[in-house]
Write a structure and sequence with these properties.
Length: 398
Amino acid sequence: MERRTFLKAIAGVSAMAIYSWKGSVDASQAPGGGKLLASGRPIRVFLAGVGRGASEHVLKLAVRAVAEATTDFSWLSKGDSVFIKPALNSGNPYPATTSPIAIGAMVELLKQKGARRVIVGDMSGIEHVKLSPKGLTGSSRRLMEASGMALAVQAAGGEIHFFEEAGWDAFYEDAPAGRYWKRALMMPNVLKEVEHIILMPRCGRHVLAGSTLGLKAAVGYWRTDTRLEYHRDASTLQEKTAEGNTVETLRKKQRFVLSAADKILTTFGPDDGHVFQPENGLVIASELVVAHDMVSLAWLSENRRNIPISGQERFKDNSQWVARIGNHYIVNKLGGLGPTLASEKLTKNDINVIWDDRVLNHAYQVFGGMPKVILEAANNSVPEDLKKRLSETTTHST
């Protein structure tokens, strides 16, 4: 079932949603209410330009240029295994999911640098895949094939892996930093088999959270019971998103984050919405996911301002009501009626400016400060005025 179908279910769940909102925590009472830390250490974020309608070869070169500018790959020893975490919430094509071209380029680069195994994997959203102690419905494998990602990975010499196929017990506990998770997070065992992790999200809008970038992509790792807590205790969903990236596995193994963003899902999301392709697209990368997301969110916000009125989908895209009912629908899919009645009210982020974003605001806290973003071009196709705008929108005046 696609995410948009929850709109048809609003009438059926609205009564229990209204009941469960009574006594819930409002966003104004939630942590991270816009209180920002002073700028911390400088963190470089690299950009490569990609012209509208550029060939597959040009995009691959841009991915390679950004990756090699971001890191010297000294962490990668010959024979190491690398896990690439894409965004595969559905089977829809890029930018609803990660770019197959970008994924293929990264697999090729890692193999050339000496990686023995490059594994690409995820577990898709509850609308499509549900793993429980009793069994499994749906298939992330079929969704990756539908998106075009699986073929790109295998053609480049990579492997594909899907967490649900290993079963309920193929997960381990990993405790996040912070105080908003009640339990440790259930992470997939495959991450114990690799030395390194690279995160490859996309740049897009999210009907519940506001945006879906690098930090939000961590949800794909989690077992169903962890996802249930995440959505049920929705008053702090944004804060839990940030904290979910602080588990020991990611702190020790994640090397960098890279997004192809020559196409942007500018409305609704994460499965459907208005796809905007700017004249000058970008590939964005950084060693720090927080810095990456600051720039990616600034890029999303800029492109949202350029979409035509006919593509804005204002009610679906902006409504707090749709977000709240949608989250109750997800809780019901994850855990049934009881958790739905007990679930808290979700408040969706505004993303007019990056300082609105509660995920980022809390990430500054749990990652030790708000980074001072230093933008650098990795090729000659990044317009100077674009670089200047993004620099201005990611610099906070204190």
